[in-house]
């Protein structure tokens, strides 16, 4: 004779469904669940990981949450506690402060995405902001004059003389600063 076996459906949180075999009920609900929107752009991360042993002098590294240019790297031999260690000395690319860090050579370090962009200088405001012309013809007005005295005087003197100048803006980890100047002749 036939035996009757009852079937019981149970609502299970989505986190458990990844390891459970598919059930008829989960297949029916699949269109209603898991709607995600991504607001991030490609390349939106401020840093990327790189093995400490692969970072070289004149490269970049994040030390104490600051983007730095590596000026010195030394590697110690493997000791009784396991890992060879890398000693990094870096100069903060925005404020010039010297920072140091020691990291096992097999561990990952954060490396900042550093970009340099050229803009034509249009104007200098009285409150220390510059007006720059972007490549697509818009203006960029949210950048201050640099704190480096030599670069600051070159920009102000050249602008006062009426020269056409292009400034290079370095961007890393959400900060940007004028780092170089090119004189492209009189206006």
TrEMBL record:
Alphabetized UniProt keyword annotations: Hypusine, Initiation factor, Protein biosynthesis
Biased composition (Basic and acidic residues): 31-40
Any GO BP: positive regulation of translational termination
Domain Translation initiation factor 5A C-terminal: 113-182
Region annotated Disordered, chain positions: 22-48
SMART domains named among the record's database cross-references: eIF-5a (SM01376)
Bilayer-spanning residue ranges: none
GO molecular function: ribosome binding; RNA binding; translation elongation factor activity; translation initiation factor activity
Domain of life assignment: Eukaryota
Family that this chain belongs to: Belongs to the eIF-5A family.
Protein name stated in the entry: Translation initiation factor 5A C-terminal domain-containing protein
Organism: Ensete ventricosum
Higher taxonomy: Eukaryota, Viridiplantae, Streptophyta, Embryophyta, Tracheophyta
């Amino acid at each position: 004779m036939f035996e009757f076996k009852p079937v019981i459906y149970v609502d299970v949180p989505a986190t458990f469904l990844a390891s459970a075999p598919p059930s008829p009920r989960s297949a029916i609900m699949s269109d209603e669940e898991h709607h995600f929107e991504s607001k991030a752009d490609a390349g939106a991360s401020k840093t990327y990981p790189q093995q400490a042993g692969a970072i070289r002098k004149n490269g970049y590294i994040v030390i104490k949450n600051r983007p730095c240019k590596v000026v010195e790297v030394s590697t110690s031999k493997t000791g009784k506690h396991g890992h060879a260690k890398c000693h990094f000395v870096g100069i903060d690319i925005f404020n010039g402060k010297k920072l140091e860090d020691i990291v096992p050579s097999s561990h990952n370090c954060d490396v900042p995405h550093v970009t340099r962009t050229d803009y034509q200088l249009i104007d200098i405001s009285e409150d220390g902001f510059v007006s720059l012309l972007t490549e697509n013809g818009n203006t960029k007005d949210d950048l201050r004059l640099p704190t480096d005295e030599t670069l600051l005087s070159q920009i102000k003197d050249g602008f006062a003389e009426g020269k056409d100048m292009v400034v290079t803006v370095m961007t890393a980890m959400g900060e940007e600063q004028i780092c170089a100047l090119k004189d492209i002749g009189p206006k």
